[in-house]
């Protein structure tokens, strides 16, 4: 079958879902990708087809006329390329992609909710207006989908409760999974190096990370706090003066973006993820678990599914640097328990988040049981 995979960013990143693509190709399916960074169609070295998309997908687009035009252009692409199945990642593009696929006669439409993001966060006028416009469209989109895969239990229950998707179509997956071989277990280091890997935006808990680092270093000045991740130029919520001040004072070390997350995890003792963004299940947390690192994260959707309290880490209230610093200090003062938590993180990754198990669910939904 001719399978098209598309994501919110519309930028094909080789290797991002490499294991899934490899499994689909091994089963004899042809893969296509939409890419707004290219101007001509081409076939890559692995036989995948890349199709240019002139429409620029914007997070802030709320113009219904542009959406109608987008849907029309997508329908033409799907018909021209004879797409049999479409796999859609990202709640922002699900309406346009799924409706266009239905109009084009695509046989199987599967949407993946890898976090509902800002749509269900906050109750200010802007967010309420956005929800008022988006929810009816999402309901229509889900109705034309063959299946809707949701990456955490909180989002699954919420979407069903709000009657956006039926119980019959909704299915739970444990995040996107993690490649246990690409992120092998690594001996936990003795130095108190604490690591946060994330896109640099306020909702990821950057301020709380900095505040906790300051509090901890007052008691344990040899504790080191490392922040890794790209800047989000479109996000105005982050206070870069706060980050620059923390760097200059030595509270944290900022390493920028990286393509080698594993090397930073290897040199860490504890992985911290104080996000209050509505995650699917954070990929960086799963990677740290796979490499055998205890986790401190928030008791919020997506994040809470990675931690068994007191077993492989701790869950803290969102937006609370005091709780975060308390748990960090506890881990500094209880090295033997931390070593046990490290082993438990790897065990949980193996049992629950193995990417092969997750991909089997996705492929079964996309192509049916006749694999």
Structure explained in plain terms:
The chain has 371 residues and is an alpha/beta fold. The protein folds into two domains: 2-177 and 355-367, Glycogen Phosphorylase B (Rossmann fold); 193-352, Rossmann fold, CATH 3.40.50. Helices cover 40% and strands 16% of the residues. It has helices spanning 18-26, 64-80, 94-104, 125-144, 153-161, 206-219, 240-248, 261-266, 283-290, 321-333, 335-352, 355-367, and strands spanning 2-7, 30-35, 42-43, 49-52, 85-89, 108-113, 147-150, 170-172, 193-197, 224-228, 253-254, 270-273, 295-298, 313-316. An eight-stranded mixed β-sheet has the order 3-4-2-1-5-6-7-8, with helices on both faces. A six-stranded parallel β-sheet has the order 11-10-9-12-13-14, sandwiched between helices. Helix 1 packs across helix 12, helix 3 (94-104) runs parallel beside helix 4 and helix 9 (283-290) packs across helix 11. The mean pLDDT is 91.
């Amino acid at each position: 079958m001719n399978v098209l995979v598309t994501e919110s960013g519309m930028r094909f990143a080789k290797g991002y879902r490499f294991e899934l693509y490899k499994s689909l190709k091994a089963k004899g399916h042809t893969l296509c990708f939409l890419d707004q960074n290219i101007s001509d169609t081409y076939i890559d070295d692995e036989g995948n087809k890349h199709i240019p998309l002139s429409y620029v997908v914007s997070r802030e687009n709320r113009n219904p006329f542009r959406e109608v035009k987008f849907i029309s252009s997508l329908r033409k692409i799907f018909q021209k390329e004879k797409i049999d199945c479409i796999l859609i990642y990202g709640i922002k593009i699900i309406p346009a992609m799924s409706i266009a696929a239905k109009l084009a006669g695509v046989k199987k439409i599967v949407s993946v909710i890898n976090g509902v993001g800002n749509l269900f966060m906050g109750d200010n006028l802007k967010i309420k207006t956005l929800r008022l416009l988006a929810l009816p469209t999402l309901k229509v989109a889900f109705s034309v989908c063959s299946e809707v895969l949701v990456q955490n239990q909180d989002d699954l229950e919420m979407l069903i409760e709000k009657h956006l998707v039926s119980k019959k179509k909704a299915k739970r997956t444990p995040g996107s999974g993690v490649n246990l071989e690409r992120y092998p277990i690594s001996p936990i280091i003795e130095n108190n190096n604490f690591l946060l890997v994330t896109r640099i935006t306020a909702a990821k808990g950057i301020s709380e990370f900095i505040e906790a680092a300051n509090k901890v270093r007052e008691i344990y000045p040899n504790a080191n706090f490392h922040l890794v991740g790209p800047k989000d130029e479109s996000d105005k919520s982050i206070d870069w003066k706060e980050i620059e001040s923390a760097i200059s004072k030595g509270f944290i070390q900022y390493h920028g973006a990286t393509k080698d997350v594993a090397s930073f995890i290897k040199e860490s003792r504890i992985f911290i993820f104080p996000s209050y963004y509505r995650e699917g299940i954070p990929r960086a947390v799963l990677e740290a678990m796979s490499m055998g690192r205890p986790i401190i994260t928030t008791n919020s959707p997506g994040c809470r599914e990675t931690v068994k309290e007191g077993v492989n880490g701790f869950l803290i209230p969102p937006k609370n640097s005091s709780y975060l610093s308390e748990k960090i200090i506890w881990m500094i003062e209880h090295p033997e328990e931390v070593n046990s938590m490290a082993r438990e993180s790897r065990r949980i990754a193996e049992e629950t988040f193995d990417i092969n198990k997750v991909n089997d669910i996705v492929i079964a939904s996309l192509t049916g049981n006749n694999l």
